[in-house]
Design a protein that fits this description.
The longest helix has 28 residues, at about 20-45. The relative contact order is 0.10. The chain contains 14 helices and 8 strands. The protein is α/β, with parallel strands linked by helices and about 375 residues long. The protein has 3 domains: about 20-80, no CATH class; about 90-280, P-loop containing nucleotide triphosphate hydrolases (Rossmann fold), CATH 3.40.50; about 285-350. Helix 8 (about 190-210) links the parallel strand 5 and strand 6 (about 215-220). Helices cover about 50% and strands about 10% of the residues. The strands form 2 sheets. Strands 3-5-6-7-4-8 form a 6-stranded mixed sheet, covered by helices on one side. It has a two-stranded antiparallel ribbon with strand order 1-2.
């Protein structure tokens, strides 16, 4: 026999609740105590008075969220390593070395510089020799100065910046930890910052476990060392600023060697400029250097022909290398040597805009 409404339990007498309308109220009453409790614990963390901060168990990071920058905290590198070790995942030198390019695999290549560049690079190569480098770092520490060396190679494309880093690594017996900057940025909030911190964390581990510190190489670093937006309002600009601030702090605390290359310096942030102890400009080769490059790339040329090409075409070393490769391809295809006139035609074809760049001769 069905119950009538009067015989039903009291809770069934109440009016049915619309779940959609009730949800905001439920969230409010559930989360408010949680938020208050979190704020209670966050205050000492943000003021760095918490025992978790003092004992180096947590460290503060910046996250870019929907409401702007906010304080976030993560386990320190020390804690993460200890936890991994307890779980049987101790980080080994072999595992860390996977991202390294061995200096022994770098092919030797003769490079030609203008006198000023040659002098600066010779000094840098001497400094980076392991014994000399350790001595200089120790002396800097005694004076209370930073031990790390950050260097900036800047100049137009094709002037030999990247190849110079490779040859410095080979000459000084240092492995190369090259960073692919295109993989740093992520569409998800906070991921780019985490990736940058992970790079420097990994580099620090490698340096500690290596007899000779490798070179941390940021190739084509234009996007990460440009001027910060002081009046950033949108989330993208704020995230870029946060990313750059992390890199600036890492450069300040660097122990090792970092070399960055860039084509652009007009937009270089002054804070980055101050942190690069060596700044070397790579200009297009002067006449003597260009002639030497022509002869090294195409040995069949006479000294007179190499000098003539150097006078006629204001090419960078990278452009001359392109031309040398093309003439080798034609020699293989057609089985005959390339004439000087044909070489000039290849030189003209090297330019995308087809504007003449032959230097004026005579008048």
């Amino acid at each position: 026999m069905p119950l009538n409404r009067a015989n039903q339990p009291n809770q069934l007498k109440h009016k049915a609740i619309n779940p959609q309308k009730a949800l905001p109220y439920i969230i409010h009453f559930v989360l408010c105590p949680v938020k208050q409790e979190l704020r209670h614990h966050m205050r000492p963390l943000e003021k760095e008075t918490s025992d978790l901060i003092k004992k180096q168990l947590l460290c503060q990071i910046c996250e870019q969220g929907l409401m702007g920058l906010s304080s976030m905290f993560e386990l320190t590198e020390k804690v993460r390593n200890e936890m991994l070790a307890e779980l049987g995942f101790a980080i080994t030198t072999a595992a860390l070395s996977r991202d390294l390019t061995s200096y022994e695999t770098i092919t030797a290549k003769q490079l030609f510089y203008n006198p000023k560049e040659s002098q600066q690079l010779s000094q840098l190569a001497t400094l980076l020799q392991p014994t000399r480098f350790n001595e200089i770092c120790d002396r800097l520490s005694e004076q209370g100065m930073r031990r790390g060396f950050a260097c900036l190679f800047y100049g137009g494309p094709g002037t030999g910046k990247t190849e110079t880093v490779l040859q410095l690594a080979r000459q000084t017996g240092r492995n190369l930890f090259q960073v692919n900057l295109s993989e740093l940025r992520d569409k998800y909030v906070g991921e780019s910052e985490k990736r940058v911190k992970a790079i420097f964390d990994n580099y620090r581990k490698i340096v500690k476990k290596s007899d000779i510190a490798p070179i941390l190489f940021f190739n084509e670093a234009d996007a990460i060392i440009n001027k910060r937006n002081e009046n950033a309002t949108d989330s993208v600009d704020k995230m870029e600023n946060a990313l750059q601030n992390i890199i600036l702090q890492e450069l300040e605390n660097l122990e090792g060697i970092l070399i960055a290359t860039t084509n652009l310096t007009k937009n270089l942030d002054s804070a980055f400029e101050r942190r690069f102890i060596y700044k070397i400009e790579f200009q297009k080769p002067a006449l003597k250097a260009k002639s030497a490059i022509w002869l090294s790339m195409i040995p069949e040329l006479t000294d007179a022909d190499a000098m003539q090409l150097a006078k006629e075409f204001d090419f960078s070393g990278g452009q001359i290398e392109n031309i040398a490769r093309k003439q080798i391809i034609e020699k293989i295809l057609f089985g005959e040597d390339i004439s000087l006139n044909r070489l000039r035609e290849i030189c003209d074809a090297e330019l995308l805009d087809k504007r003449p760049i032959r230097s004026a001769i005579g008048f």
